[in-house]
Amino acid sequence: MSKNKTTAANESPAELAADVLDERLIRHEGLGGAVRAFFQRVRGGDLGSLPVVIGLVLIWAIFQILNQNFLSSNNLVDLTMQSAATGTIAIGVVLVLLIAQIDLSIGSISGLAAAILAVGMTQLGWPIWLAVIVALLAAIAIGLLYGILYTRFGVPTFVITLAGLLAVLGLQLKILGPNGSINLPYESWIVQLGTSMFFPPWAAYALAIIAALGMFFSDWFRSRRRVRAGLTGNSVTLMFIKAGLLLALLLVAVWYLATTRGVGVMFALFVAFVVIMNFFLTRTRWGRAVYAVGGNVEAARRAGIKVNRIVISVLMLGTLFAAIGGLFATGRLTAATLSSGGGDTNLVAIAAAVIGGTSLFGGRGSAYSALLGIFVIQSISNGLSLLNLDSSIRYMITGAVLLLAVIIDALSRRSRATHGQA
Amino acid sequence: MTMEAPLAEQPTLQREPVLSLRGISKNFGAVQALTDVDMDIFAGEVVAIVGDNGAGKSTLVKILAGVHGPDAGTIMFDGRRVTIPSPAAARALGLAIVFQDLSLCDNLDVVSNLFLGREVSDFTLNEEEMEKHSWTLLRQLSAKIPSVRIAVASLSGGQRQTVAIARSLIGDPQVVILDEPTAALGVAQTAEVLNLIENLRERGLGVVLISHNMADVQAVADRVVVLRLGRNNGDFRIPEVSYEEIISAITGATDNAVTRRATAHGTHEGSDS
Fold it and tell me: Fewer beta carbons under 10 A from the terminal one: N or C of chain A?
């Protein structure tokens, strides 16, 4: 009986691509189809980054109404530069959350990186690159230690990194010494990077065009490979529209920012990190393994994935990005202090990842949630300080937004379940 | 089913078994989980392993899966003596195991699940090749899955089991071991999985089916191996054995003349009334 079925399936018409043979599949073709498919996805609870984008637009609109300076080019440049440091830390948080773990010590690690950089540069007379490398290596070593502790002893990362938070903070204070605060020379490139290194407009325009072309060709080549493999390709019109929209958005953004200072190199580096991590997460075996470990660690183990290696590599990347973010923050503040990486750094970075749409339960999220999430948080914080409201209000509002984001996540999870897309 | 009996007999007589266990023993502390278990699996044959809870079925599967090592005994695969130190080694040999609790990643789509841990990749993933291969494989299994780009979570229980079984075929194994594949499935879905098992046999694979469900066992298996308290307690050819005989081998009723008499008496009474 089953033999007959097999041959029947093999004899199905060859003109149709392999992935659309099933007659039950609802097909969406062309531009209209893409729009319909999008609305269907949203109704089914697959919100993606839609709530964040809508939230961001709302926040910007409200602050612009309250204060005309909010959307000024100058303030937006500030916003991008403020976002870069904590946003970079948030990339690491996204990675760690994807494997359903958490790193609470990212703030301390960013502070440690700041301390190592400052002491190395000013007191030990190291060249900046050496200080940077030592700071990053220290962070990677801590991540490795976390990973070994977790995989060897099975202690939850929540506890390991809570211990790390204190221990690394102690290390930071020890390195900074009795002074507690070290100023960096203003001419050093790390400070320049944090404060006044901007792309000339032509370079920024060129980057925007390269990004849009890159997306178009990546889509185009993928579509061609699919057709060659006997699957459906994507419509070229759609690819044009997608790349065109991105290009228009980037060009307008660059033009508007360039009316004052322009696009900060530090911010561009942050965005580049996001794009690179997104590539590794979606297009490599390592990334697939990260999602698998976050989704069902036992299944991943049985599938032959070396779970321990994945966990250790992710924890190391988490601390590495925390350190890079810490270095960015030091450059921006032009000093390493006792409170570098202290205060709300930890929670803002974790909140950014969650607000951006990365699930706290692992396996769901993308590198872009770091970018979107930090924009939301920094917009609120920036807007409230423009309104001369102090940090008490800022904390309360940021807390409320975080809660809202988690509620949206929970609701969309429920909707996914009822629409069979969990 | 009777038509399949001669088909299954041929390989048993002429060919070497593809997987052969001799004198497998395993203890966990003071508990002797398996004692001197022998088993042969031939290509193109479905062998059911049945037994009560605690009979040692899961332990046997775990030994074959490379989760536990046996304390004594030999495993011959394809005529060679082998050891299975790890799950990866079992896979490398050509032994594929579909575990009871599915072990799929709900957050990943069908293609990602099928190729999990053995993605086709040259630095970047070759999604197109994997998707194409997925469709070919699912069609060969007559699987009814509308799209391979939807998350596994949105599939029905039978479809998920299909994906789990299809995944075991990715590395071209010679023996597929299915641990309770129809547990928690509905009637239609169970039938789908049974069709799939017959399909595996037609592809010339040795299939080991671990099941509590005698109806399933009698429907698809060619041979049934009974384990009781960690020992072999019967090896029957399905067409030649009755439901009652299997049950008594499982429960140990054959050892006990009184029970057997009571059963015989019971059936006699039943036919009288």
Answer: N
Please check whether residue A368 is in contact with residue A107, taking contact to mean a CB–CB distance below 8 angstroms: no
A212 CB-contact burial (10 Å; exposed 0-12 / middle 13-18 / buried 19+): buried
High-pLDDT (> 70) share of chain B, %: 86
> What Rg do the C-alpha atoms of chain B give, in angstroms?
20
Residue B259 lies in a domain: no
Alpha carbon separation from A131 to A54, A110, A121, A126, B214 (Å, rounded)? 41, 14, 6, 6, 70
Indicate which CATH number applies to the domain containing B19: 3.40.50.300
DSSP secondary structure letter of residue A27: P
Q: Which are the contacts of A27, defined by CB distance < 8 A and separation ≥ 6?
A: A20, A33
- Of B91, B99, B195, nearest to A304 by CB-CB distance is B91
Do A57 and A376 form a contact (C-beta atoms < 8 A)? Answer: no
User: What does the pLDDT read at residue A266?
Assistant: 94
Residue A205: HSE in the Cβ half-sphere, 13 Å Cα cutoff: 8
Binned at pLDDT 50, 70 and 90, residue A254 comes out as very high
Whether the ipTM is more than 0.85: the answer is: no
CB nearest to A283's CB, from B124, B145, B148: B124
pLDDT, one tens digit per residue, over A88-104 is 999 999 999 999 999 99
Strand partners, B47: B208, B223
Does residue B178 form part of some domain?
yes
Task: Determine contact, residues A165/A108, Cβ cutoff 8 Å.
Answer: yes
In total, chain A counts a number of residues equal to: 422
**B96 contact residues in A (CB cutoff 8 A):** none
For residue B196, give its domain range.
4-102+174-241
Residue of A419, A410, A409, A414 whose CA lies nearest to A55: A409
Q: How many CB atoms lie within 10 A of CB A329?
A: 25
Residue B68, pLDDT above cutoff 50: yes
Query: What is the percentage of chain A residues whose pLDDT exceeds 90?
Result: 51
Q: What is the pLDDT of residues B99-142, one digit of tens each?
A: 877 678 888 999 999 998 888 888 888 888 898 889 888 888 77
Res. A7 pLDDT band, cuts 50 70 90: very low
In the structure, what pLDDT confidence band is assigned to residue B6 with cuts at 50, 70 and 90? very low
Asked if residue B49 has pLDDT above 60, the reply is yes
Structural domain includes residue B23: yes
Indicate the domain borders of chain A. Answer: 51-197+264-407, 204-252
Which residues 203-262 of chain B have a CB within 8 Å of chain A?
Answer: none
- Tell me the C-alpha distance between A103 and A315, whole Å: 8
- In the predicted model, what is the mean pLDDT of residues A260-272? 93
Tokens, residue A54: 């809508």
A302–B103 C-beta distance less than 8 A: yes
Residue B145 lies in a domain: no
B 88-117: CB under 8 A from A? 88, 91, 99, 101-108, 112, 116-117
The count of structural domains within chain B is 1
Give me the phi and psi of A47, to 5 degrees please: -75, -25
Q: What's the pLDDT score for residue A2?
A: 40
Scan for tokens 């699912």, then name that residue: B138
| C-alpha distances in Å from residue A16, one per residue of A11, A13, B158, B231 | 12, 6, 26, 54
**pLDDT tens track for A401-412:** 878 877 877 777
